[in-house]
Specification:
Keywords: Coiled coil. With 210 residues, the protein is mainly alpha-helical. It contains five helices and no strands. It is elongated, with a radius of gyration of 22 Å.
Amino acid sequence: MIPLFFITLLLTSCSTAYYSAMEKVGVHKRDIMVDRVEGARDAQEEAQEEFKSALEQFASVVALKETDLKVAYDKLNAEYLDCEQASEKVSTRIDKVEKVSEDLFEEWEDELELYENRTYRATSKRQLRETKSRYRDLLASMRAAERSMAPVLETFEDNVLFLKHNLNAQAIGSLQAEFDGLEKDIEVLIKRMNEAIKESNAFIAQMEQS
């Protein structure tokens, strides 16, 4: 088993090499941070569409009276898998935003000590403080949206499994109560994602102006 210290060291070395390579072509941590925030925003927009599509499919299955239940299960399961993949993508993108942001702020802190001009140092320090504050709001909003995906996925998974193991009309009827709760959960999820997307757009705009 590889010690945690060496894993951390390896990851740090990889990140340093990546940043160095990007800086050689004029792309700095700040630019990477903005790019990753955009990526996280886009992933959340995609996830919204996947969850909406899954809810529509769920509603159509619940409404069925006579149908091929195996086909209904296959469709709903496919939607669940798409949502699960979209959820994982959102989490990965947010993790990447967090990583480059931590590296950027650490570098910024270190470079404050390099200033000889006190006015410049004070201005840069204030900009760092303001950027950190905006970033904390952004990250909190993203993580809230991320957390709201979990209960929706759990409900979807439960009902997909239930339908898989009970391919009969009685199973379809029992899904109605679950659908009502799921619909509300997805409404909350979409609302939180919209808030996170709005925060992302504001953050990107402010970073591009500064």
